[in-house]
């Protein structure tokens, strides 16, 4: 098996990183399909993945596997392989060593497609001092709130993340997203105690309080208690675009 590993490594190392970055997109799914046997059959000590791929190529592989609708190409095995090699993403920085935050990562794609891989991707994208933002204004923090990644949300907040940062395209706050589909009580509590505003309306005029009253009656007492402790006023008469109030 070790001999087979070396054969695969030689094959992938044969492509210089620059060449991988330039040519990999030409036959994306074919390349990914060829990579899966390498992942599946690898035995023994795992390689330093940066000896094989540049960071941009790794991100491309992860993004394409997340976005793929091909039944053969699945993101989970690839993500697990990179995690097991010890790979961690590092941000690009400017001349003052300040990280660039404008960037679309596999986490942004996963947030639209597959909730199950979001916690695993945060093991690779584990920098919480930079909040990557895509072209829609969706951030890693938003994704963590939407998919109940409690430990990730806690780490972002500990480092000073604004609990009221909005998704530019939709106007949704982290609290909107925490209440979107699931009952993320712990996330909602963390956000409220960090200063999340129940009165922020998205582009449809919907406030977090609208969502609570519509889908999460069991959370109302907790929300009002926290707001009372923090002396925040709740606008119970706020109207959405259909002129509905939270208590309508």
From TrEMBL:
Keywords (alphabetical) are: ANK repeat, Repeat
- Keyword Chaperone listed: no
- Source domain of life is Eukaryota
Q: Which Pfam families match?
A: Ank_2
User: Mind telling me which InterPro entries this protein's record contains?
Assistant: Ankyrin_rpt, Ankyrin_rpt-contain_sf, Multifunctional_regulatory
Q: Where are the ANK repeats?
A: 170-203
Gene3D superfamilies in the record? Ankyrin repeat-containing domain
- Signal peptide positions are none
UniProt-recorded name of the protein: Ankyrin repeat protein
The scientific name of the source species is Trichogramma kaykai
């Amino acid at each position: 098996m070790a001999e087979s590993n070396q054969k695969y490594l030689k094959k992938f190392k044969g492509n210089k990183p620059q060449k991988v970055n330039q040519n990999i997109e030409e036959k994306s799914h074919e390349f990914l399909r060829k990579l899966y046997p390498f992942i599946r059959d690898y035995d023994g000590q795992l390689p330093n993945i940066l000896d094989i791929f540049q960071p941009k190529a790794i991100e491309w592989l992860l993004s394409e596997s997340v976005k793929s609708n091909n039944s053969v190409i699945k993101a989970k095995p690839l993500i697990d392989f990179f995690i097991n090699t010890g790979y961690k993403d590092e941000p690009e920085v400017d001349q003052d060593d300040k990280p660039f935050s404008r960037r679309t990562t596999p986490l942004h794609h996963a947030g639209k497609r597959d909730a199950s891989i979001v916690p695993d991707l945060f093991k690779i994208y584990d920098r919480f001092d930079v909040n990557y933002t895509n072209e829609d204004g969706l951030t890693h923090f938003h994704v963590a709130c939407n998919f109940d990644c409690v430990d990730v949300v806690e780490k972002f907040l500990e480092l000073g993340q604004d609990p009221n940062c909005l998704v530019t395209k939709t106007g949704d706050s982290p609290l909107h997203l925490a209440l979107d589909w699931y009952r993320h009580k712990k996330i909602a509590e963390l956000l409220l105690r960090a200063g999340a505003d129940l009165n922020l309306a998205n582009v449809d005029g919907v406030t977090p309080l609208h969502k609570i009253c519509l889908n999460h009656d069991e959370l109302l007492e907790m929300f009002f208690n926290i707001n009372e402790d923090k002396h925040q006023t709740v606008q119970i008469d706020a109207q959405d675009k259909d002129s509905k109030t939270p208590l309508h």
